[in-house]
Amino acid sequence: MELRGKAHKFGDDVNTDYIISGRYKFKTLDMKELARHVMEDLDPDFYSKITPGDFIVAGRNFGCGSSREQAPLAIIHAGISAVVAKSFARIFYRNCINTGLPVIECDTDQIDPGDELAIDLEKGVLHNLTKGIDLKITPLPKVMLKILSDGGLVEHFKKYGTFNFD
Amino acid sequence: MGKTIAEKILSMKSGQDARANDIVIADLDFVMGQDGTSPLAIRAFREMMAKKVFDPRKIAMVIDHSAPSPLQGVSELHHQMREFAREQGIYLYDIGDGVCHQLLPEQGHVVPGNLVIGADSHTCTYGAINVFSTGVGSTDLAAGLISGKLWFKVPETFKFVLNGKLPHGVFSKDLILYLIGDVTADGATYMAAEYTGEAIRDLSVEARFTISNMAIEMGAKCGLMEADDKVIEWVKQHTDKPFEPVSPDPDAVYAKVKEYDVSNLEPQVAKPHTVDNVCPVREVAGTPIQQGVIGTCTNGRMEDLRIAAKILKGKKIHKDTRLVVAPASRQVMLQAIREGILEIFIEAGAAVVTPGCGPCVGTHNGIPSDGENVISTANRNFKGRMGNNKAFIYLASPATVAASVLTGKITDPREFL
Q1: Which of A53, A99, A125, B370 could bond to A5 as cystine, CB 3.0-4.6 Å?
Q2: CB contact under 8 A, A67 and B186
Q3: Residues of chain A positioned with their CB less than 8 A from the CB of B27
Q4: Which one, of A62, A114, A69, lies nearest residue A84 by Cα?
């Protein structure tokens, strides 16, 4: 599976309050509505800048803070196809895999805002098409690949009724 | 080769010889969700085609983040939780009962040596009583509700050795803020933190919860401490459940060890807009404050209220300042009434609100206006956290918050103690 789109760049320590504020997330399960407010406290116009398939690209510790799963869900419903960062906070990382949002760890200093990217999850390579360079991706643990390839944890449980990594 | 607390608990609960970086599937002793995360988990539970939870006596849902409901949309989500709890026979803590992380230890649901997940990032709080407890998202919560299990990557451990005695007027909140400032917001990411040493042993169990509560703010998966006599006595006061404390082996392997001498520590604050943006109070002393908040899962317990009341007793808060007090639970609130502490707060000019999370998470009960400075005993000061992205949040101990609302500016509490 190849993902393709342009990069929207953010800094270090982007927390889940910034991804989707508590002002919105406590009052609805309508993810389309939450998606309109994604990253609003960092960039009020972010939602309108997204072309479906685009990537969020960030620095260290992306997704730190609250455990809210509305964060990856709002990102997915805003049309973002993957998040690329130098490192991720662990609850957010698990939530992404569970909800089926690919998370990619690599050296994002080599990516500028607006760069056109293509990501090959199977081969573990990120092509920066604008710069003509390939970046190495940290591989996902086996159990996470299994959950992601089943289509998320809901699908995994529908299939097996419990955790099954054999 | 010896094991850390995290490796020992995950070994016991998985039946495997669990070592750092192994992946294990382990049995859960308790599972918790709150009103910001449970509704999505209930939806996932249904989508997973589940009919019954694994054990209703090992599950609680807590309505605390927007409680009582300030909006119709929230009311609908609370309704779903009440219906689910009734249908499944699980524990439900409703409005006014308190903050989830106060309730689980206080109501005796979690005991030393347990493995616990909660769909709330501050679930790491129970590490103070030797529980491997960690925050998860809603779909992991649903999987836990159904199977009573979860997969874990066994974390490496970052050991903090805290030597010396905390000076007068310096509290566990100051200590954990200092540590977060030192190692930064991702200093312990993917790791378990173990806090040990004389300074920890000297603290009450209540004060220790403040430290474990904020382990997540350095990125840690849990914030573990050993169960000493104080912990064992505290737990026995809250439950008859049997338990077996877990200590690290003397030859346990740590990814990192840092030693500190706390005997010269000063009161600390975290400045806007990150928790690791920490400095001594004196560096920002004099900054005008429009609102103070005392409460939350970090600092809403009796000991916190007592120290704030000691400073506020017989005085009035500054005329340009407001104070919101939210006791951590119904029990805490009742005890504060019995001790005359709420009277002190109310006479000083505070607004005392329902036990819950509202003022910390920006759902209601004290959203600041544009440009205002807030000083809070909470654990997060992210931009927008309290419901307004144009406000500025400083984090401090209950003593510093109480002193600051008296003077209307950030103030070193030692002047009042």
Answers
A1: A53
A2: no
A3: none
A4: A62
Please report, as a single letter, which amino acid is at residue A162.
T
- The predicted pLDDT at position A57 comes to 98
Distance CA B177, CA B166 (A): 14
Has residue B49 got a pLDDT over 80? yes
Confidence of residue B293 (pLDDT cuts 50, 70, 90): very high
CB < 8 Å to B142, chain A? 153-154, 157
What contacts A143, CB < 8 A, 6 or more positions away? A165, B23, B151
Nearest CA-CA partner of B53 in B61, A94, B76, B94:
B61
CATH topology for B5-241+255-260 is Aconitase; domain 3 (3.30.499)
Compute the distance between CA of residue A121 and CA of residue B12 in angstroms, rounded to an integer.
35
The yes/no answer on whether domain B270-416 falls in CATH 3.40.50.720 is no
Chain A residue with Cα closest to B363: A23
* Integer Cα distance of B278 and B269 in angstroms: 6
Residue A1 has pLDDT above 80, yes or no: no
- Across A137-151, B157-171, B201-215, least confident range: A137-151
What integer pLDDT is reported at residue A24 of this predicted model?
86
User: Which residues of chain B are within 8 Å of residue A18 when distances are taken between CB atoms?
Assistant: 382-384
Parse chain B into domains and list their residue ranges: 5-241+255-260, 270-416
Q: Which of B46, B48, B66 to mutate to test the interface with A (most CBs of A within 10 A)?
A: B48
Which residues neighbour B208 within 8 Å (Cβ) at sequence distance 6 or greater? B128, B129, B172, B195, B200, B225, B231
Annotated binding site of B for [4Fe-4S] cluster: 297, 357, 360
Quick one: pLDDT at residue B173? 98
Residue showing tokens 């529908």: A158
A2-160, what's its fold?
A: Aconitase; domain 4 (3.20.19)
Binning pLDDT at 50, 70 and 90, where does residue A123 land? confident
Q: Structural domain boundaries of chain A?
A: 2-160
The mean predicted confidence, pLDDT, of chain B is 97
